Amino acid sequence: MSYSWLEDYLARIDGKEARQQYYERRYAAWHEAARKMAEAIVESHRALTSVSGETQERQAQLTRSFFESVASNLRDQAESNRVASRELAEQVLKSQEASRLLAQESVNAYVGFLDSMFSYYRENVRAAGRATRRS
Questions:
Q1: What H or E segment, with its residue span, contains residue 115?
Q2: Is 118 helix (H, G, I), strand (E, B) or coil?
Q3: How would DSSP label each residue in 36-100?
Q4: How many CB atoms lie within 10 A of CB 19?
Q5: What SS3 class is residue 14?
Q6: How much is the pLDDT for 58?
Q7: Interval 58-90: pLDDT, tens
Q8: Which residues make Cβ contacts (< 8 Å) with residue 3, sequence separation at least 6?
């Protein structure tokens, strides 16, 4: 409620009682405005508190979600690493077995080669011995 300058002037000339009523109305209006402002501030504070609580809850959910995602990714990566390690170990064993077989075959071939050379030499020595006996 607004008061005009005319009401102010009339309250001043009407005397003490009129002035008192005028100021009581004006103070009542100020008091009402102050009460409404205080209520608005309280309501703002409540709304801010509510939003703050909701924001904190969302932040907590996002944080939980982030760490759960990271933990899940780490578990998946660890499992993938275990599988890869197992496959690598199997390949190493296969490679070692192939190397062992190759070495064994190489030794067998070399032994066979040496045996054939010594067999040829023995056969030639025997043949020479027989030839000498005949003569």
A1: helix 16-134
A2: helix
A3: HHHHHHHHHHHHHHHHHHHHHHHHHHHHHHHHHHHHHHHHHHHHHHHHHHHHHHHHHHHHHHHHH
A4: 15
A5: coil
A6: 92
A7: 999 999 999 999 999 999 999 999 999 999 999
A8: 22, 25, 26, 29
Both tokens of 8, joined, read 């102010």
- Say how far residue 83 (Cα) sits from the centre of its chain: 21
Question: CA torsion angle for 55, 61, 62, 66 (degrees, to 10)?
Answer: 160
Q: What pTM was computed for the model?
A: 0.45
Tokens 């390949």 belong to residue: 91
> Angle CA(12)–CA(14)–CA(19) in degrees, nearest 5?
50
Distance between CA atoms of 69 and 63, rounded to whole angstroms?
Answer: 10
Show the tokens assigned to 10. 């009339």
CB 12 within 8 A of CB 19: yes
pLDDT of residue 126: 85
Query: Per-residue pLDDT tens for 95-132?
Result: 999 999 999 999 999 999 888 888 888 888 888 888 88
Q: How far apart are CA 84 and CA 78, in angstroms?
A: 10
**33 closest CA partner among 72, 69, 80, 1:** 1
